[in-house]
């Protein structure tokens, strides 16, 4: 049976750290879907779900699928025959955040979560921190894919007008 993994997240927007995890997941699983998923704790984002999906599609290779989902993650994985969730882990802070979600998803549907340790190049990179840097005019080169960095800076420029 071919293996199918989903990389779920808010991805508002994707960083180069996310892209690295997607590529590494694609080497481990037959099929990988990046899933832009609603996080009820982050209701209003900088970008719409459609924009986030577009950024990812413009960045990843065509064999990686990109989709979005507004409901419970395990309802998507059960409906699409997904075997595994894949997430990046930067530090023990991420571990504390991810552990209950991984255990809850396993309790709800039996799905396991596999964690890939973030490449040390991207260990300090998060969408929220990089957005903060961009918001106040800092240099985000090497943090987001180039077209995404441009869009982030434009969005903050538009918001100031
Ligand atoms: O990138 P994030 O915001 O840390 O990702 C969190 C996300 C979106 C994966 C999580 O909030 C999620 O799975 N949301 C979908 C709703 C759901 O299934 N909630 C229960 C999670 S145990």
Automatic annotation (TrEMBL):
SUPFAM superfamilies: Nucleotidylyl transferase. Signal peptide: none annotated. Substrate binds at residues 10, 42, 73, 87. InterPro entries: Cyt_trans-like (IPR004821), PPAT (IPR001980), Rossmann-like_a/b/a_fold (IPR014729). ATP binds at residues 10-11, 18, 88-90, 98, 122-128. GO terms for cellular component: cytoplasm. Residues 6-132 form the Cytidyltransferase-like domain. Its cofactor is Mg(2+). Keywords: ATP-binding, Coenzyme A biosynthesis, Cytoplasm, Magnesium, Nucleotide-binding, Nucleotidyltransferase, Transferase. GO terms for biological process: coenzyme A biosynthetic process. It is found in: Cytoplasm. The record marks 18 as: Transition state stabilizer. GO terms for molecular function: ATP binding; pantetheine-phosphate adenylyltransferase activity. It comes from the Bacteria. Its EC number is 2.7.7.3. It catalyses: (R)-4'-phosphopantetheine + ATP + H(+) = 3'-dephospho-CoA + diphosphate. Pfam families: CTP_transf_like. It is an enzyme of class 2 (transferase). The keyword Phosphoprotein does not apply. CDD domains: PPAT. Pathway: Cofactor biosynthesis; coenzyme A biosynthesis; CoA from (R)-pantothenate: step 4/5. Belongs to the bacterial CoaD family. Homohexamer. HAMAP family: PPAT_bact. Reversibly transfers an adenylyl group from ATP to 4'-phosphopantetheine, yielding dephospho-CoA (dPCoA) and pyrophosphate. This is Phosphopantetheine adenylyltransferase. It comes from Corynebacterium minutissimum. The lineage of its organism: Bacteria, Bacillati, Actinomycetota, Actinomycetes, Mycobacteriales.
